[in-house]
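Here is the promised in-class demo. Please do not try to memorize the tokens; focus on the logic of going from shape to residues.
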């Protein structure tokens, strides 16, 4: 039996014995839900940079992680907030990431990939004009479309800073949606994920904000594949889902309530565009395979143990969830280190990571317990916590 000493509240240590991994079936049939995993980037720890100021990416391991997701039947949502977009990953490197991922996708038949575009080449400022924000969106859309990529219109910090009314949001989205070549996914990211997006759509009240968003969707339904909302509010998502125009999908971004939202109800279901799917990929794929086979009970049984893990990874301050995603990739040998761009490996405490370890094991998601335990011990020693 493999055990490791882990910290607990109050400063003590507790011996934790691992349960061992679960066996997850690799799906053999197409899913009946569209499922994108928002993938992280792997930093290059050998680069001679200033980690809080500069960005160095291990391109080989970053693309390998995407190939791992594709091998399980999951799509990749590229260059999103999970990839530390705007928190270490700038627009030039985002475009390079998109270029490399699109090229890699061509070598794997049947892959699904959609790419985040926004306005992060602009520094948010009240002095920005709406025309400048629109031009920034257009620049990124055109760059990704030239590469043959499908678009995810990310929420814009610059627009949140520049807009003076809901009409400003409508004006920007009208211009962008009129000009895109193919239907896009609109991404509404709540301020729990990014405080700079507070008041998006021109309202602090989420109900009023949703009305503005729905008006934009209704006016441009032919240019919208779907909308992803990341508000961690299942009831609000369901209410919005029921009001979407025919043919416009709801992509859940709710990393707390994703299982029930994907399963759906008698009036519909949500597809998925989730950061947590990058962390729980084998379980997510197996569950979606069961759902496609008509076995909702097995779908729920597979995902139920992952929900406490997801809620822990995405607990407040939610914007630091990327640390947990990368840590789990490290524990599972999908990268050789726990270093992140922007120094974000320090964004969560040793206690937080210890609980993540326990919950990942409880969910059967530590593929090699011996390796995971060894890496956990090394991390704890670096924190001055050792048996």
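The designed amino acids, position by position:
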């Amino acid at each position: 039996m493999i055990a490791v000493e882990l910290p607990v509240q109050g400063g003590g240590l507790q011996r934790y014995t691992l349960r061992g991994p679960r066996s997850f079936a690799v799906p053999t049939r197409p899913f009946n839900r569209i499922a994108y995993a928002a993938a992280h980037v792997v930093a290059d720890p050998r680069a001679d940079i200033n980690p809080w100021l500069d960005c160095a990416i291990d391109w080989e391991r970053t693309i390998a992680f995407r190939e791992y997701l594709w091998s399980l039947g999951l799509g990749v949502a590229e260059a999103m907030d999970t990839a530390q977009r705007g928190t270490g990953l700038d627009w030039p490197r985002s475009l390079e990431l998109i270029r490399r991922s699109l090229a890699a996708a061509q070598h794997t038949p049947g892959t699904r990939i959609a790419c985040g575009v926004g306005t992060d080449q602009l520094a948010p400022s009240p002095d920005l004009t709406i025309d400048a924000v629109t031009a920034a969106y257009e620049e990124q859309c055109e760059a990704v479309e030239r590469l043959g990529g499908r678009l995810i219109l990310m929420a814009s910090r610059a627009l949140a800073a520049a807009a003076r009314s809901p009409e400003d949001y409508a004006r920007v989205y009208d211009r962008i949606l009129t000009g895109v070549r193919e239907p896009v996914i609109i991404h509404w990211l709540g301020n729990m994920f990014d405080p700079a997006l507070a008041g998006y759509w021109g309202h602090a009240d989420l109900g009023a904000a949703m009305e503005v968003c729905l008006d934009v969707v209704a006016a441009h339904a032919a240019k919208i594949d779907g909308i992803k909302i990341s508000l961690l509010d299942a009831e609000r998502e369901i209410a919005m889902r029921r009001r979407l125009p025919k043919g416009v999908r709801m992509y859940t971004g709710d990393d707390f309530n994703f299982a029930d939202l994907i399963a759906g109800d008698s009036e519909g279901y949500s597809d998925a565009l989730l950061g947590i799917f990058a962390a729980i990929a084998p379980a997510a794929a197996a569950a979606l395979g069961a759902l496609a086979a008509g076995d909702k009970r097995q779908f729920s049984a597979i995902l139920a143990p992952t929900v406490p893990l997801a809620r822990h990874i995405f607990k407040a301050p939610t914007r630091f969830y990327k640390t947990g995603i990368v840590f789990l990739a490290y524990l599972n040998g999908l990268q050789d280190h726990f270093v992140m761009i922007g120094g974000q490996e320090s964004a969560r405490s040793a206690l937080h990571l210890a609980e993540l370890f326990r919950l990942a094991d409880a969910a059967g998601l530590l593929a090699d317990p011996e390796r995971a335990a060894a890496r956990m011990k090394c991390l704890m020693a670096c924190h001055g916590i050792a048996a």
